[in-house]
Design a protein that fits this description.
Layout lengths: L15 H12 L9 H4 L11 E3 L1 H14 L2 H4 L3 E3 L16 E7 L4 E7 L3 E7 L4 E4 L2 E4 L5 E4 L5 E4 L6 E7 L1 H6 L5 E3 L13 H6 L19 E2 L1 H14 L8 E4 L14 E7 L9 E2 L3 E7 L2 E5 L2 E5 L4 E4 L5 E5 L3 E7 L1 H6 L5 E2 L4
Antiparallel strand pairs: 1-19, 2-3, 3-10, 4-9, 4-11, 5-8, 5-10, 6-7, 6-9, 8-12, 13-14, 14-21, 15-22, 16-19, 16-21, 17-18, 17-20
The structure holds fe (ii) ion.
């Protein structure tokens, strides 16, 4: 079953009599399953998403141009959607996820709203901007992983003096698959700052929980996972042992309450590929978006090879064989819909034989 999948179920011959019959079926809003069975139940994943890479250097000037053309107030959120070429016009990067690059200029405020769709932010460049979630602000530094879980009020502001750019990752296609989208504005432009900065990280992110804490939502109560901490852990683990033959040193971000993923629909990971790493090919059913945080290298995705450098973004569709190589010590952040696949019993991987 390796390589390009073929149609597993064969289609009967299309005779003139059958064609006429199918026409009458269509008139009654019915259809012959045997004509479409192979297409709708392929023997292995056949994603419409294709491998793709965006060099950040190509996108940044366009993002800055958007910053001149539209105010953040006109746009609500000034974002360039990164569309998969196999899913053009659908605001999707994989079948189930959306990503975009958001710019907030010095002095700007992106007004407060909330929606059922869950969002993560991965900070690409800049310093001094903040994201506020449910009354608490966090300053955004490059490499920070920030959550705005489903139906939480959030706004962004940039009181600093340089542009800030981050990657947005949302489960928009999943929410719309179920037709469960709701969204609304906060009554004011920004929400009141009612919780001191850093409170969530101290309360939930120090390997302890408040003694009487009872979680009331499935997402993590931490909403900023700072890069400084993630990087330190990877650095130590990289020095302590052998990397995994496919993944290098790969960690997943967790909800400290459950040990599960940080949000129910989107998983996030960070991995260190030591200089000279030459990974074996690996397949997984969760189509994955990678953001290069540090280092240079290349990744083979199916038949395509991408050379990457910091801030580049690339996509591996479901079940594509992925193999990473690192020229220098490299750090990749990634996100996928793995939690949703796992809770539905759909997720599979294929690790090469040792
Ligand atoms: Fe939002």
């Amino acid at each position: 079953m390796d390589g390009t999948s073929t149609t597993f179920f064969t289609k009967p011959e299309l005779t003139a009599e059958r064609r006429e019959f199918y026409g009458r079926l269509a008139a009654r809003n019915t259809a012959p399953l045997w004509e479409v069975l192979g297409a709708i139940i392929p023997p292995e994943p056949r994603p419409q998403a294709v491998p793709v890479l965006w060099h950040y250097d190509d996108l940044r000037p366009l993002l800055m141009e958007a910053g001149r053309l539209l105010t953040e107030k006109e746009a609500e959120r000034r974002v360039l959607v990164l569309e998969n070429p196999g899913l053009r016009g659908q605001a999707r990067v994989t079948g189930s996820l959306y990503i975009g690059l958001q710019l907030i200029q010095p002095g700007e405020v992106a007004r407060c709203h909330r929606h059922v769709t869950s969002a993560l932010r991965f900070v690409i460049e800049g310093s001094g901007a903040y994201t506020a979630v449910e009354g608490e602000r966090t300053t955004m530094h490059p490499g920070d992983f920030i959550l705005t879980p489903s139906w939480t009020y959030h706004d962004h502001g940039n009181p600093g003096d340089v542009p800030t750019v981050w990657l947005d990752g949302l489960d928009i296609p999943i929410v719309n698959l179920f037709d469960t989208s709701f969204a609304e504005h906060y009554p004011g432009e920004i929400q009141p700052n009612t919780i001191p900065d850093g409170d969530s990280l101290a309360r939930y992110g120090a390997n302890m929980l408040p003694v009487d804490f009872t979680p009331d939502k499935p997402s993590s109560p931490i909403f900023n996972y700072p890069y400084s901490r993630s990087r330190e852990a990877l650095d130590r683990l990289g020095r302590n042992g052998e990397p995994h033959p496919c993944h290098g040193i790969k960690m997943r971000y967790v909800n400290p309450v459950s040990g599960g993923y940080t949000m129910p629909t989107i998983a996030a990971f960070m991995q260190l590929l030591p200089a000279g790493f030459n990974g074996k090919p690996y397949r997984q059913t969760d189509g994955t978006i990678y953001v290069v945080v540090e280092g240079t290298g290349r990744t083979r995705v199916g038949d395509t090879t991408y050379d990457w450098r910091p801030r580049d973004i690339f996509v591996a569709p479901s079940w594509a064989a992925v193999a990473h190589e690192a020229q220098s010590d490299a750090v990749l952040f990634s996100l996928s819909d793995r939690p949703a696949q796992q809770v539905l019993g759909l997720w599979r991987e294929r690790v090469p034989d040792a």
